[in-house]
Amino acid sequence: MKTYVCQICSHIAFDQAPVDCPVCRMPIENFENNPDAVKKPADPENLCAEDRKHLPVIQVNRECSLNQSAGYMDVHVKIGEIEHEMTSEHLVNFIDIYLDKKFIMRTMLTHRRIHPATALRLNVNSGTLTVIGNCTLHGSWMKRVNLSSPFTA
Ligand SMILES: [Fe+2]
Q1: Cα(60)–Cα(146) distance, integer angstroms
Q2: Which domains are delineated in the chain?
Q3: Which residues line ion ligand 1, judged by CB < 5 Å?
Q4: Is the pLDDT of residue 150 over 70?
Q5: Burial code of 4-21, b = ≥16 C-beta within 10 A, e = fewer?
Q6: Strand order from edge to edge, sheet including 139-146
Q7: How much distance in Å is there from the Cα of 50 to the middle of ligand 1?
Q8: CA 90/CA 134 separation, integer angstroms
Q9: What gap in Å lies between CA 91 and CA 73, rounded to an integer?
Q10: Distance between CA 88 and CA 44 in Å, rounded?
Q11: DSSP, residue by residue, the chain
């Protein structure tokens, strides 16, 4: 997986650098190819506490709570099966979300009375959702789910 990182806002793009950063709008020159942009657990079969504090947890609800019509899907995200701390020195400062590897949303977070979490409402019925949570000390961690089969990942 090729990953390119915006040196201005830390947004990660997949496969190729975009002409303009979809988050901060800075041009392609600010993207750096970094194959290690996304942190990976040392042993995916035996996650350590640091892995479990940083890997996003995604819950997909096909039954939208506010609108029961077709074409609505709720997605809830939290950072860490063990919730990540939120202090001024050490926090999850943003969560980026992608549909089929294309950026669709950033949630900016502060340490002020905020849990490391976000939610969105999609108008699709299928595709691959990617979530990246960025920790100010420990980097970017990713989780990817197939929206065709709702579950918690
Ligand atoms: Fe952290």
Answers
A1: 10
A2: 1-36 (2.20.28), 38-146 (2.60.40.730)
A3: 135, 137-138
A4: no
A5: bbbeebbbbbbeebbeeb
A6: 38-39, 139-146, 128-135, 92-99, 102-108
A7: 7
A8: 11
A9: 28
A10: 29
A11: --EEEETTT--EEESS--SB-TTT--BGGGEEE-TTSEE--S-TTS--HHHHHHSEEEEEESS-SS--STT-EEEEEEETTTTPP--SSS-EEEEEEEETTEEEEEEE--SSS--SEEEEEE--SS-EEEEEEEETTTEEEEEEEETTS--B-
Going from the Cα of 116 to the center of ligand 1, the distance in angstroms, rounded, reads 11
The residues, any chain, with a CB within 8 Å of residue 71's CB and separated by 6 or more, are 123, 124, 125
Encoded amino acid at 26, one letter: M
109's tokens: 């977070």
Each residue's pLDDT tens digit, 33-84: 999 999 999 999 999 999 999 999 999 988 777 777 777 889 999 999 999 9
Residue 151 has pLDDT above 90, yes or no: no
95, β-bridge pairs: 107, 133
- What is the distance between the alpha carbons of residues 17 and 90, in angstroms, rounded to a whole number? 28
33 C-alpha to ligand 1 centroid (Å)? 23
Average pLDDT, rounded, for the chain: 94
Distance 66 CA to ligand 1 centre (A): 33
